[in-house]
Amino acid sequence: MAEPRELLRQMLLVRRFEEKAAQMYGLRKIGGFCHLYIGQEAVAVGSIAALELARDYVVTAYRDHGHALACGMDPKTLMAELFGKATGCSKGKGGSMHLFDAARHFLGGNGIVGAQIPVATGVGLACRARGNGGVVLCYFGDGAIHQGSFHESLNMARIWNLPVIYLCENNQYGMGTDFRRVSSVTEFAAMGASYGIPGRLVNGMDALEVHREVSAAVARVREGSVPEFLEIRTYRYRGHSMSDPAKYRTQDELESYKRQDPIAILAAALTEQGLLDDAALAAMDDAAKAACDEAVRFAEESPEPVPAALYEDVLA
Amino acid sequence: MSVITFREALRAAMDEEMARDPSVILLGEEVGQYNGAYKVSQGLLEKYGPSRVIDTPISEEGFTGIGVGAAMAGLRPIVEWMTINFSLQAIDQVINNAAKMRTMSGGQFSVPIVFRGPNGPAEFLAAQHSQALQSLYAHVPGLKVVAPGTPADAKGLLKSAIRDENPVVFLEAELMYSWKGEVPDGELLVPLGSADVKRPGKDITLIAFSKPLRLALEAAEALASSGVDAEVVDLRSLRPLDPETVFRSVRKTSRCVVVDEAWPVASVGSHVAWLVSRDCFDDLDAPVELVSGEDVPMPYNHALELAAQPSVAKIVAAARRALYLT
Q: How far apart are alpha carbons A99 and B101 in whole angstroms?
């Protein structure tokens, strides 16, 4: 199990990185779509901490900054990618939605809602062929769960018993649509049953619960049992992307989730247990801010891709 | 040299590559126990077992995407689409994932995968099951697209496609599977991106690929009986193209007919015709002709469906226009 203070450190890094990304977006250093993870930090951090990335894999959608950082990617290469610089993890060709790290088994970063779910399932097929106990964490949102790709993938994962854990990060709004308005079944955890896959509901505002539940699932899947499905109920504080003022929800609702902020509740729990004091928390936060400042500096100073890069990396 | 069918050539290519490289797998509908909807994969399940020859449910988007993920994580999948028509259920995975993963990841990931199956009109199958969709795939950077017209090329190109580090869309045809042809014994690799002169000639160039290659060769014979010596160039590879082989032929003959059974708008055929018009402008003695499929959904009625496709008569007529023999 991961050290709780390490989970807190990573969540703070994600929070500060996203705040910095929002700031840079406002300054027009970052363009296009930029989907922030603020509020959802406990999900990526708590779950990816359950993996051994030498043999396990992570596949996610376009709200991917938090997963990339939780996989251990350097904030510098991420910020440079958001800036479209040659030093970015995808050489400035992917941007916010397409972060990748082959060495850390982080396979993106997919911009089409639900399109990553079959890909993750195929990674599971490769893991099974390799026979080393590797497990795939496949993330998607409440919007993606109604895509055919989800249903096709769960069916095949179950008939072939692939080592994939499907994590629905239910942040409750598919862009501006409350999931309750468009879901015939609102307890998503039940949907795994359609495919003979056990499903569980997890509180995504609690990093320790996420970590505990996903660690247990990883252990079961590694043992060679059936794939698993987790609905992790969470909440994003910001709009769907930078251009979304999020008028489809009430301020009261937002405030109610901020009162169970994943960083605040973990910090409080650790303080209560005597594992953290204000000075240690401040030092951790300062380190996260410094890393993000350094990332911005690196991105600012990095070169643009050269024009000849246009034709590079199209084919192998 | 052995005489084998197109189907046997494809099977031999997969068999040899699966024997050579344990990371090669085959997945798709009916590829295993049923031995393939068109019997291309006959015997492979028995030989390589269910972990490498994988029967899928009818879930084209799902199993196509599964192939992409497996390729990103170290396998070399061959995804069989029962026909190209059903690839439309999966085209998001091909265009948005397979073709773009390398660019989007800054070169970190490659997707060594082959998507293969029959393309183009068959017989009595009507609009949804009888269409030539090569233009859709040939449009997309990050893909390679191959369309052999002979058993030898089918074997040599499929083996190369399986070994390629990029996603390759490999186009066959229902009506070609039983065609026979000579295939050299032993290792046979035909490089992707190379056209081939299938019949030398000096008076006019007929450019074709896949099933219409046979029509072009028959048209060349028909033209020969009226004293016209036609050269037939088989594109074989639609992306990347081999324009130099095409241009070399047209610069020699000064006349050109392009044959492509796809619809005429924004097609491989229209693109090649434009390339020839631009790059061989000073050598051409007549406008470049295009013999395409008619610009309609395929009808069921046999006379109408034949009328909707390129034919020997249409190719000969186009050649005669280019030769000012009308």
A: 11
